[in-house]
Amino acid sequence: SQQHKQEATKTPIYLDYNATSPMSSQSRDAVIEAMYTGWQNPSVCSRTRSIVEVARKSVADLIGCQPAELIFTSGGTESNNWAVKQAVWMYRNLDRAENAIVGRPHIVASCIEHDSIRKPIERLLALGLVDVTWLRIDSSTGALANVGDLVAALRWRNTCLVTVMWANNETGAIFPIAEV
């Protein structure tokens, strides 16, 4: 009916789940509780430190790592920036006494990486701190043109990072991780 169509169009439909999504009531309640009871600096307040450490242990148990291996960041962009820079830093700080370093750090990345990955790589490249191999994308599918290109791009001694978007948030293309 006409009335049903009008009512249906009045209710907004949220479609940008790539950027953010609604919280469950359980998550919302936990965040509110933490804001009231754990707002102090965790380096100073033992109650706040305990809240952070319980969360760290829960996440570590969930993903199968040690709590000390986790780093909490403000979000995806900071995490991606950190991962790119950390891979380069770790490579550059290998034990030079054993001649582990052969040339500049090398990064392999698809040419359609998210800005939070692509921009730090471009900055490191502009500073002359890394070499980069950009993988071609098939314009008709939005997917990697040839998985063999990725394998061929690897440099045994100095590729410190390979980054490819598993599922592209703009094209919907799925990267064939299993093939690699």
Automatic annotation (TrEMBL):
Q: Where in the cell is it found?
A: Cytoplasm, Cytosol
E.C. designation(s): 4.4.1.16
- Cofactors demanded by this protein: pyridoxal 5'-phosphate
User: Where do the Aminotransferase class V domain residues begin and end?
Assistant: 13-180
Principal subcellular localization = cytoplasm
InterPro entries in the cross-refs:
Aminotrans_V_dom, PyrdxlP-dep_Trfase, PyrdxlP-dep_Trfase_major, PyrdxlP-dep_Trfase_small
A GO CC annotation given for this chain: cytosol
One of the entry's Gene Ontology molecular-function terms is:
selenocysteine lyase activity
Top EC class per UniProt?
Answer: lyase
Looking at the Swiss-Prot or TrEMBL record, what is one Pfam family this protein matches?
A: Aminotran_5
Q: What does this protein do?
A: Catalyzes the decomposition of L-selenocysteine to L-alanine and elemental selenium.
Assembly and partners are described as: Homodimer.
What protein name is recorded for this chain? Answer: Selenocysteine lyase
Q: Supply the source organism for this entry.
A: Macrostomum lignano
